[in-house]
Here is the input.
Amino acid sequence: MASNIWTSAADGDLDQVKSLVEGGVSVNAADEVGYTPVQAASSWGRMDVLKWLVDNGGDVTAGDEDGDTALHITETADVADYLMSKGASPEARNSMGLTPLDMVVEEGNNDLRAFYEGRGFVLPTELSSPEMRNNMGLIPLDVVVEE
Here is the structure.
């Protein structure tokens, strides 16, 4: 059994998440880098935990210290669809100026690409596309090369 809400959310341990919240932990508690339980559940595709957190006040638009929201880090279309239905924006920019749409291209997630394109969003075909230039004038390929 996980002892913190972020690990419990990532593990899909809904009973533990509920217990921690009932014990006084906020559904929007941020760890030392601003990571929230909603982000943990979203990242790991724990839909039951995610829905419970949101139903109990979890913020789908909260960003961590890098400005990444839950939608920036989700890897599945069902989670992305749910987050968007609750107000998450696929056009929200993180601290590097990248959107969740840019992250899909950067990660090469074809399932999410198809999901977004099916909803009318236009995604660049590659990391070097000039239309992906962020608020620092960089394209994702520049960021990947720097890392």
The radius of gyration is 16 Å. Residues 93-147 form one domain. DSSP finds nine helices and no strands in the chain. The longest helix spans residues 14-22.
